[in-house]
């Protein structure tokens, strides 16, 4: 019997508890909508610095290496904060965990308005990173609790798609704020959105066992697949090769989208000659393709599973296709015209999010919900390490050589990450702790 058939046999059918309510009345999709908006806010806040960077660099006389250190400060904060945030999500739950994380990073983002030197911004980016990392450990935790296996990649794809929507919104929004109100308000105004989101989250979110509006039919739909048991110890989790496979994969995959988020505006401004106004008008387009890839990758994996493919096969096919698209970074830097380069970047981001939606879903496929937050945090620590080192390397290469070797490196990293994952993991199935 295939994995999909076995899973289908284990899940109680909604008909046993009555029909499911209409989609818009199902609680799990409403919660997913809030996760999506949290991720949008996360990436709007995250991208402010990259869009304001040309002004900050000229105002405070910052080099590419200085900018790389500022970005590395954020990534170092992500690495340091990953495990505390994952622990908070597993032990205290996403209701409290998400509330704390968004308030924490929103305050840090707003305080960038007081920055005066490279080390001010680097320290604030570090603070901000210690909070923003909670978005993914909390998001994957919520998906593991609220969605059956056949819907998990789609659910992850939708909330992960908020990264691209945030990146689409950020250039025109931040440029408009900056040109009309100054660069300080470009940090302050987006930070207020996080506070509003926390108010909505506290009203809507409760765990499945306690949610007052969850129907018996929807409870039956999401129950029964995850044999969670008691929460495993951290040392126990790190004994599993599956945890290390996921950590290595995220270490190699993560810096790719970070490169495009943090460096694409600078690349377009310094190398391709686009003005700030043009960047605001066009730099969002690749991230639209990234959003399509995130949702498309999740949908295609679910389509494969519904057609009888095993979860293992569905994840490997979709991740491999995404990694192949990432190789087009080489074509992007080699293109002679800026519009052609942007077209290749669009396909790269499509492939990256196509891959990453399934990479995050594998965490929930392999580990029970009592461990998902911490395993996601472990992968985030691995990704944070590469995310900390890669901006420094990028700044050095750009200052001393050019952007070309950086584009070649980011082309190859996703394929290497997927290969390591498939070789070490062997098969996508839940471990027995």
Mind explaining what this structure looks like?
The chain has 433 residues and is an all-alpha fold. It has a single domain (3-224, 232-425), classed as Growth Hormone, Chain: A (Up-down Bundle), CATH 1.20.1250.20. The chain is built from 18 helices and no strands. The chain has helices spanning 3-10, 27-60, 64-92, 94-110, 118-132, 134-146, 149-181, 183-204, 216-222, 234-238, 241-270, 276-282, 285-306, 311-326, 329-334, 338-366, 369-400, 404-425. The longest helix has 34 residues, at 27-60. It is globular, with a radius of gyration of 21 Å.
The H/E string reads HHHHHHHHHHHHHHHHHH
**In the CATH classification, which architecture applies?**
Up-down Bundle
Number of domains: 1
The CATH superfamily label reads: MFS general substrate transporter like domains
Low-confidence stretches: 1-15
* Spatial extent as radius of gyration: 21 Å
Q: How is the CATH topology named?
A: Growth Hormone, Chain: A
What number is the mean pLDDT?
Answer: 85
**Percentage of β-strand residues:** under 5%
Structure class: mainly alpha
The residue fraction in helices comes out at over 70%
The CATH class is identified as Mainly Alpha
The largest β sheet comes out as: none
Number of helices: 18
How widely separated are the two ends?
A: 23 Å
- Characterize the overall form: globular
What's the assembly state of these chains? single chain
The number of E-state strands comes to 0
């Amino acid at each position: 019997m295939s994995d999909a058939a076995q899973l289908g046999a284990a899940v109680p059918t909604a008909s046993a508890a009555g029909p499911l309510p209409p989609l818009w009345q199902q609680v799990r999709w409403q919660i997913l909508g809030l996760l999506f908006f949290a991720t949008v806010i996360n990436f709007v806040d995250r991208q402010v610095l990259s869009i304001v960077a040309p002004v900050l660099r000229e105002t405070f006389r910052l080099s590419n290496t200085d900018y790389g250190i500022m970005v590395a400060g954020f990534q170092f904060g992500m690495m340091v904060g990953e495990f505390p945030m994952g622990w908070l999500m597993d032990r205290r739950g996403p209701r409290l965990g998400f509330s704390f994380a968004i308030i924490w990073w929103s305050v840090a983002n707003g305080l960038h308005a007081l920055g005066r030197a490279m080390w001010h911004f680097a320290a604030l980016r570090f603070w901000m990173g210690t909070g923003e990392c909670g978005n993914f450990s909390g998001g994957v935790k919520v998906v593991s609790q609220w969605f059956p296996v056949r819907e998990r990649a789609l659910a992850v794809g939708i909330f992960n798609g908020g990264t691209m929507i945030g990146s689409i919104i950020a250039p025109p929004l931040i440029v408009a704020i900056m040109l009309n109100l100054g660069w300080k308000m470009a940090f302050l105004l987006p930070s207020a959105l996080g506070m509003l989101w926390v108010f909505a989250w506290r009203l809507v979110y409760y765990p499945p066992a306690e949610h007052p509006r969850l129907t018996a039919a929807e409870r039956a739909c999401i129950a029964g697949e995850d044999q969670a048991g008691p929460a495993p110890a951290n040392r126990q989790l790190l004994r599993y090769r599956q945890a290390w496979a996921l950590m290595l994969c995220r270490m190699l995959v993560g810096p790719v989208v970070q490169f495009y988020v943090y460096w694409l505006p600078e690349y377009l401004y310094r190398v391709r000659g686009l003005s700030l106004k043009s960047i605001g008008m066009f730099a969002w387009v690749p991230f639209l393709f990234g959003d399509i890839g995130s949702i498309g990758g999740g949908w295609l994996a679910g389509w494969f599973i519904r057609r009888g493919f095993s979860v293992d096969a569905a994840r490997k096919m979709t991740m491999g296709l995404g990694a192949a698209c990432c190789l087009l970074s080489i074509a992007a830097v080699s293109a002679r015209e800026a519009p052609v380069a942007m077209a290749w970047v669009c396909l790269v981001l499509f492939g990256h999010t196509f891959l990453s939606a399934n990479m995050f879903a594998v965490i929930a496929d392999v580990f029970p919900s009592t461990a998902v937050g911490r395993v996601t945090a472990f992968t985030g620590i691995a990704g944070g390490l590469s995310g900390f080192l890669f901006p420094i390397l990028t700044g050095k290469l750009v200052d001393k050589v050019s952007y070309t070797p950086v584009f070649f490196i980011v082309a190859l990293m996703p394929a290497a990450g997927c290969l390591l994952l498939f070789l070490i993991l062997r098969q996508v199935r839940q471990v027995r702790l």
